Amino acid sequence: MSLGGDEYPLVHGDYETVVTQVGAGVRLLRHRGRDLVLGYRADEVRPRYRGAVLAPWPNRVVDGRYSFGGTTHQLALTEPERGHALHGLVCWQRFDLLDRGDAWVELGHTIVPRPGYPFAVELVVRHTLSDAGLTTTVRARNTGPVPAPYGVAPHPYLVAGPGRVDEWMLTLPAGDVLEVTADRLVPLDLVPVNDVDFREGSRIGRTEIDHAFTSLTPSPDGLVRARVSTPEGVGVECVWDPAVLPWVQVHTADLPDPAQSRLGLAVEPMTCPPDAYSSGTDLVVLDPTAEHVAEWTIRAV
């Protein structure tokens, strides 16, 4: 048992990964021994949500306060430096092992009603390794008697190779970006990407990114691909269906400690933008017994 609880190593072909009981997260992912995500040791507490599943909301609920169904709710402020409720309720919860094989594992957890989120939502997270990479499927079902607000996203930090994000290329087929305030990252207006336009693939350089993007253009197969690569074209990409996950948060992980800063690029496909509990934008509303399924894949390139 690690600090993340029981661990579930999975192997398929050239891929290997380790899934943790706590948060049903991904602690490491490698292809032919090359890291595809910024991992962490089994004997350390997960740093900065690396590999976590974010539910029942991704990103922030501003001030932790929202209204739903005619009632105002107050969530615990889990981002005290900015005064928001951050990244949902399950990152630090133990999931039950439902079933597993050599290349897949299925974990479950039920969010119980509580102050701030008086709704019951059952989650089943399945991680599967295949020739296509690591596919994560999150199935949510409302087991309570009333409709429930819901959103989901992953939080991987993609790694193209040695070095820092400054040296890598980013390809992100997004046409619009959500402006936020500089201090508390409170959402403002949706605007064209302009200075953070990576649709054609560009070197990240010293650009600081911590924004939600949308207006995603899929490939001919209908899926969006966000790619991080070295100038030689070696790297990793995240693939998802924009009809289910129409937003993506991208973050260059700028930190005060230079030694820990900009080591990976967070690429988080999301069902909804920051503060969707307040704005209602693309918010999933789960009626009693209703289900929602989201899926994404991380693969080597």
Write up this protein:
It is a single chain. The protein is mostly beta strands and 301 residues long. The protein has one domain (7-300): Beta-galactosidase, Chain A, domain 5 (Distorted Sandwich), CATH 2.70.98. The protein contains one helix and 27 strands. The strands form seven sheets. Strands 10-11-12-13-27-23-22-17-20 form a nine-stranded antiparallel beta sheet, with no helix packed on it. A hairpin with a 5-residue loop joins β2 and β3. The chain starts with 6 loop residues before the first strand and ends with a strand. The model has no long low-confidence stretch (mean pLDDT 97).
Please supply descriptive tags for the structure shown above:
1 helix; Beta-galactosidase, Chain A, domain 5; globular; 1% helix; mainly beta
Distance between the termini: 32 Å
**Global structural class:** mainly beta
CATH architectural type:
Distorted Sandwich
Counted by DSSP, the helix tally is: 1
SS elements, strand count: 27
- Principal-axes shape call: globular
Could you tell me the radius of gyration in angstroms?
18 Å
Weakly predicted, low-confidence segments: none
| CATH hierarchy class name | Mainly Beta
pLDDT averaged over residues:
97
Helix share bin: under 10%
Strand content: over 45%
Q: Write the element-wise H/E pattern from the N-terminal end onward.
A: EEEEEEEEEEEEEEEEEEEEEEEEEHEE
How is the main sheet built? 9 strands, antiparallel
Under CATH, the topology can be stated as Beta-galactosidase, Chain A, domain 5
Please state how the strands of the largest beta sheet are arranged side by side: 10-11-12-13-27-23-22-17-20
Oligomeric state of the chains present here: single chain
